[in-house]
Amino acid sequence: MPTPTLVVHYHIFKVGGTTITKSLRRRFRDGFVEIDKLKSTVGTPLNAEAIKRILVERPEMRACSAHRLVANVHLDASLDVFPITFLRHPLLRAASAWRFARARTDASEFADSAKSLALGEWLEWCLSPGQLIECRNYQSRVLSTRDDGTASHWLDGDVLRGDFDEAARRLAAMPMGCVGIVEEYDLSARAIEVAARDRGLELKIDSRPANATKVVDDWQAELAAVEAEIPRTVLDRFYEANADDLAMFERYRARLLAMPEHAAI
Questions:
Q1: How far apart are CA 201 and CA 172, in angstroms?
Q2: pLDDT tens, per residue, the chain with 265 residues
């Protein structure tokens, strides 16, 4: 019998992933697994080989999601994968992470720093030497995690980078419409559904992000408001430190807006 298509969601922290997991759970019920919450995956790399092992243990699995899932499972020729991920403007993602951390009740360096510092001060702290939290090409670093689960980042002068070319290769290998943009959520959701139908899958993705720390109708107005909170020198450093993430965001937002499927959507 042919192997059923497996929906794989690469869940990047604070990039609209809760909506996807909610939608997949509603669609697939017990066939949906958040694999980084399984006891059997603690301390192990979540890569294509891990997916294969889980499929043996859980042959009913039809969709999965994980924060630390290596984003090249869809490149494994032995698996039939329908991949989904989202990108977000790096500054809006960082602001969301700051708001999320301020609302946490546990004690951690991440939460404590956000609670004690204004947004601009927190971004400056995140950009200090030795800090890897949230604000330095986070999305491209996550998307280029090595197959063994180790980080691919390296310092280019003062800028922390992942393997941008590898991240770009992985995104380019995904079906058209499967790289969503948080700031274009409704359009992204419809594009994913169209791409799924092309693969013989029926998906319904919620149009509005769930578990959002802040939801606005005009993301560009929100961006302008956030930028106005941040000292110019810090803002310049932030954009320099996130040039790779911003390039990916702009590329895939333009690609989404140019899709001929808009008429059908």
A1: 21
A2: 456 899 999 999 999 899 999 999 999 999 999 999 999 898 899 999 999 999 999 999 999 999 989 999 999 999 999 999 999 999 999 999 999 999 988 888 888 999 999 999 999 999 988 787 779 999 999 999 999 999 998 888 888 999 999 999 999 999 999 999 999 999 999 999 999 999 999 999 987 665 555 556 799 999 999 999 999 999 999 999 999 999 999 999 999 999 875 544 4
d(C-alpha 14, C-alpha 104), whole Å: 14
| Alpha carbons 6 and 168: distance in angstroms, whole number | 22
Neighbours of 134 (CB within 10 A): 22
Nearest to 95 by CA among 265, 233, 263, 223: 223
Q: What is the pTM of this model?
A: 0.93
Length of the chain: 265
Which CATH code is given to the segment(s) 6-262? 3.40.50
